[in-house]
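User: Before I run my own analysis I want an independent prediction to cross-check against. Here's the chain; please return only the structure tokens and, at the end, one sentence I can use as a sanity check.
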Amino acid sequence: MENPLAAKLSMFADISLDDKAALNWLCDDVRVFQPKCDVIKEGDRPENVFLLVDGWAMRYKVLPNGRRQIMAYLIPGDLCDIHVFILKEMDHCIGLLSEARIAVIPKEKMLSVLDERPRLARALWWSSLVDDSVLREWLVNMGQRNAYDRIAHLLAEMWLRLSVVGRVDGNSMQLPLTQVDLADTMGLTAVHVNRVLQQLRQDGVIELASGTLRIPNIEKLMRVSAFEPNYLHLQPRVN
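Assistant: Structure tokens:
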């Protein structure tokens, strides 16, 4: 299977064979992590960059009262921050939602690629800017959309992002999220999430069973959630 980072960056730049070889070199130390563990904890000072090769992860914070807020989902091809090693310490955690294969990239290797391969450097900056754009859309989702639209919009986003890295099989994709995970993402209760999922099923928008999400008609899902994919910036820009 193609390196998921190369697949993702190819949406922005014309990645050469040498560039792909450099990305594979970045990912030569791949380790298996178990679900429900933290790759990075709040307060850590990381010395490496982490690339998700397989599996799902999340960015989250836990409040003093124990409540959790999930701020982002990471899927294959996503980096846990290109320049994370510049920070004195992490201000949030990165935890795993499923078993995952993660490439551990020493900062020296990442800096080498950024310095020596300007096309890849631009593509990686594009990736970081898209992450910021997704965060802005999530803020809009939380602040202005109702519960039904919030969840439908999130599912449409994840379907498109997973499609880019070849993790959608026909109309189906793996969705290793519990109703509690969705609640902690959407600012809802798990009971409310359950009701919304039931309504989405009744409306024929989704089918969800045993961690597999099937979307019979992605255009319908995008329509009911007023989803506009422009914030994902999937159109190629670099020649």
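Sanity check: The chain has a mean pLDDT of 92.
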